[in-house]
Amino acid sequence: MKKKDLKELSNIILFALLLVMVTNCSKNNKDASIDKALLDKNEKLMLNGKKEESIELNKKLIKISKKNKYEKGEALGYINLATTYRTLGKYKVSSYYLKLAQGLAIKLQDDFIYTKLYYEYAWVNSALGLSTTGLNYNTKALKYALKLNERSSLLGDIYGQRAGFFIDKKSDSALIYFHKGFDVDPSALNSSLIGRFHLKVSNNLDSATFYNKNALILLKRKEYGTIREGIIYSFYGGLLLKKKEYLPALEYYEKASTILKKTQSINMLPEIYRNISIIYKSMNNKNKENEYVLKYTQLNDNLKMAGNEAIDISINKYIEKESNNESTSTFMYLLIGSIIFIIAIIFSFLKIRKNRLKKQISLSPFEPEENTSKERKDEITNENFTELIDLAKSNDLKLINRFQEIHPDLFLSLLKINPQLTKSELSLCVMIWLGFSSKEIANFTFMQHRSVHNKTGRLRKKLNIQQGQNIHNFLKSI
Question: What are the residues whose beta carbons fall under 8 Å from the beta carbon of 69, sequence distance 6 or more?
């Protein structure tokens, strides 16, 4: 090859390398621009309660990410949409977008995406009353967050979220995690969370006052009018209510509710409405008390209904999956059975084959196993059983969700027998399974004893329970 040709070839290679570098640089700049919008711009929109704009932004960025084959941007967009819909109380839609993000996260194996994904999964499950599942997701989020080089406010949020899961059962651990969150991110919100802990759990009014007042001091100008300010005012209102300073408490609650309504953060409003009704009751203002009791009841019921819809989806998907598995298993059993039948005919004259066939018959899946009831009895711990009893006695709407989390097999079995069972009938099944009599169920659910008796009769028909068979024993056996 001539010297001139070599020089020309080297120029071509150099040009190609420069082109690749420019292309990669351009792609990296585009990806960085998408990331900035997905993280910074979206957060600003969310804090200011501009949910519709946030939804529009993320859908647009997802479309661009798909076009650029930037899967990380696509996954972040889905997680952001899940967060937005969750704060609007639309858990069904939120769960849908988390599933899309999860599919991409498995492909990407990116620690930051996993952190964001599991953190949001924890919030959704917490909102649905599935605290154990929520805590498991929080543990996963924390695991991936600690792998990240940068200790950001996200890690502080995860610690704060984790503390919330421990408040009821391990209050000492909860306080440790609240302080860890504040150490990582010494923000007004994290100070306020510690103050609320001392108000609600430790009953240390001095500490509650210090941390709540400190939160007001730490509030930054950029946080005014945002969700964070609304939450901090709400917690400060709780402190003033505890001190029986009713008028200042009412002022902070009203400021908080105004901000939270403006920012479309409705999840916290039921508690605020309930506390405002308590203030008006203390002030002997019956009309205002009833007005806020009604607001609390309506909004709380709507949020619970949205949560139950999301629970229904998970139950139905599980049933569908089990049905598909069952169909596959049935085919396999038929195939195996046919082979055994042929072998049995060929070797029927041999006594040993006859004995083996008898043994197979004795091990038929239709024969009850002696240890089944004991195993099922051991499935629920004494602690969980006590929790379910308390929820049932207080007629708490969380009972059905919590029972499904602790012992999902019962609902799946019941719905396989009759998919038309209603929420009310499933709740009655839980009460009977727990061992309550019809009179006790009537007392706890504020129903007439006769109504419970009639409802149980209809339930027996739907489940094809034979006359004379004890319904409690039937539910325990499936």
Answer: none
Instruction: Render the burial of 64-100: b for 16+ CB within 10 Å, e for the rest.
Output: bbeeeebbbbbbbbbbbbbbbbbbbbbbbbbbbbbeb
**77 contacts 62 by C-beta, under 8 angstroms:** yes
Both tokens of residue 110?
Answer: 């990116």
Q: Which residues contact 341 (CB under 8 A, 6 or more apart)?
A: none
Closest CA to 181 of 156, 145, 162, 198: 156
Instruction: For CA atoms 428, 434, 437, 441, give the dihedral sign.
Output: negative
Angle at alpha carbon of residue 406, lines to 404 and 409, rounded to 5°: 60
Report how far residue 136's alpha carbon sits from residue 123's, in angstroms, rounded to the nearest whole number: 11
pLDDT, averaged in runs of 10, over the chain (478 residues): 56 52 52 84 86 92 93 95 88 91 93 95 87 91 89 88 90 93 93 94 94 94 88 95 94 93 83 92 91 86 62 46 44 53 52 47 34 43 82 81 84 85 87 91 84 91 90 89
Rounded Cα distance between 394 and 348, Å, is: 63
Of 374, 462, 458, 366, residue with least CA distance to 414 = 462
CA 249 – CA 244 distance, rounded (Å) = 8
